[in-house]
Design brief:
- The protein is about 5% helix and about 35% strand.
- By secondary structure, it is mostly beta strands.
- The strands form 3 sheets. The chain has a 5-stranded antiparallel beta sheet with strand order 4-9-8-7-6, with no helix packed on it. A 3-stranded antiparallel beta sheet has the order 1-2-5, with no helix packed on it. A 3-stranded mixed beta sheet has the order 3-10-11, with no helix packed on it.
- A hairpin with a 7-residue loop joins strand 6 (about 65) and strand 7.
- The two termini are about 25 Å apart.
C-alpha cells in the first residue's frame, strides 16, 4: 500500500489581519532559514519554504503590495496596511515561496533554536553562492532551556 504525504494546511496572516492566507509547507518546518542579502538583513524575517501551489490568499489580495529589487526576479509581498512581509517568490527557486514564519498562526521565529543563514549576498543564481554561511541562534534565558519549543514537521 502506498501512502501519500499531504501537507497540513496552516493559517497565516499579517499583523493587522488585513491579509490572511493558508499555506502548505514543502517539508514542514525543516526548511527554516534566514538570508544575508541586503533586503533580508534589513527585514530580519525567518522564512520557510512552500510550493507556489501551497499559498492561497483568502482575504486582502487587494492589500498585498509587492517589492522587487536588483534583478527583479524575487517578488516580495507585504501588507500595504501594516507593512508586514508575508511571503515572497524566490529568486533562487522560482517554483517556491519563502513564507514569513511569524505570519503562521501559533509560530514564532523564536521557536527555532538554530536557523541556517543562506548566502544571498553571493546569490546562487549568480553561480557564486557559498550556501550556508552561518547560523542564527536563539536561547530563551527566561526558563534556562535552549530550544525547548523547537518546531519540527511533527510540531
Amino acid at each position: 500500500m502506498t501512502t501519500t504525504f499531504t501537507p497540513e494546511v496552516l493559517n497565516a496572516s499579517c499583523h493587522c489581519g488585513a491579509v490572511a492566507f493558508t499555506v502548505q509547507l514543502s517539508d514542514g518546518f525543516n526548511t527554516v532559514r534566514r538570508c544575508n542579502c541586503s533586503f533580508c538583513r534589513m527585514r530580519g524575517a525567518v522564512a520557510v519554504s512552500a510550493p507556489l501551489s501551497g499559498i492561497r490568499v483568502i482575504r486582502g489580495q487587494d492589500k498585498l503590495s509587492e517589492y522587487r529589487f536588483n534583478t527583479g526576479a524575487a517578488v516580495h509581498f507585504f501588507c500595504s496596511v501594516c507593512g508586514i512581509y508575508t511571503f515572497h517568490q524566490r529568486r533562487s527557486n522560482s517554483g517556491q515561496y519563502g513564507v514569513n514564519v511569524a505570519c503562521i498562526e501559533n509560530v514564532s521565529p523564536f521557536d527555532f533554536a538554530c536557523v541556517e543563514v543562506m548566502d544571498g549576498v553571493n546569490h546562487p543564481r549568480d553561480g557564486v553562492s557559498q550556501g550556508v554561511v552561518g547560523y542564527l541562534r536563539y536561547e530563551d534565558v527566561s526558563n534556562g532551556k535552549s530550544g525547548e519549543n523547537v518546531k519540527t514537521d511533527k510540531s
